[in-house]
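Structure first, sequence second, as always.
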């Protein structure tokens, strides 16, 4: 790996990999995305670069690996400081990190509780997901973006997870737009950015992939 080379160990459907790709695009950083086959055998490079968790994304910069998506986005913001993703004010940076941590701890688990449900999705799972989005609406307030006038750190962290929302709606039988209109408007605002629109995958393809994963899992269980 040549000096200054940026490589991302990637999986197209991973919302966590999308975070890194959006952040790199926002900074205009050229990089190589190397697809990992997470089901058919992980590469030696992935296992060597992330021996603890053995998962993507991994960012390799000058051959040095960085793991965990939020940490990677923070590294990208510090290494390529323009345009900044985090606010210049210390208290606002702390607030952005708080909401990023909230998203990390809450949103993806709530998404998984819906799409991994066997049979009809429990109302408790749907209500939990919607309540989390309503809390994020409260954090958004009257702003169009979490970053205020500019697309920022929390926007990057959150928008990547919405790539699975179509699947959540299909599995759960509801619409985010109807339940959380302000959050839905934020999603549409983010999708107007070229760096987001060209990177987020086709939501129907994500849905089909998750559906296939459920079918394969059920067959594995029934054959056990």
């Amino acid at each position: 790996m040549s000096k200054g080379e940026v490589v991302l160990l990637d999986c197209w459907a991973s919302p966590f990999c999308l975070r890194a790709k959006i952040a790199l695009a926002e900074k205009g950083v050229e990089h190589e995305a190397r697809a990992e086959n997470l089901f058919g055998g992980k590469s030696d490079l992935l296992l060597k670069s992330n021996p603890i968790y053995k998962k993507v994304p991994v960012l390799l910069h000058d051959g040095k690996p960085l793991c965990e998506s939020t940490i990677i986005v923070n590294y990208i913001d510090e290494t390529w400081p323009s345009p900044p993703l985090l606010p210049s004010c210390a208290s606002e940076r702390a607030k952005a990190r708080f909401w990023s941590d909230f998203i990390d701890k809450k949103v993806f688990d709530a998404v998984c509780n819906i799409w991994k449900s066997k049979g009809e999705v429990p109302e408790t799972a749907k209500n939990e997901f919607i309540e989390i989005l309503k809390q994020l609406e409260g954090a958004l307030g009257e702003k169009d973006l979490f970053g205020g006038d500019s697309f920022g750190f929390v926007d990057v962290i959150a928008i990547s997870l919405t790539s699975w929302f179509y699947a959540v709606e299909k599995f759960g039988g509801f619409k985010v737009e109807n339940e959380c209109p302000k959050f839905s408007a934020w999603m549409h605002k983010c999708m107007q950015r070229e760096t987001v629109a060209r990177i987020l995958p086709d939501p129907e393809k994500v849905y089909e992939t998750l559906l296939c994963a459920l079918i394969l899992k059920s067959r594995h269980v029934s054959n056990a």
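Margin note: The two ends are 44 Å apart (CA to CA).
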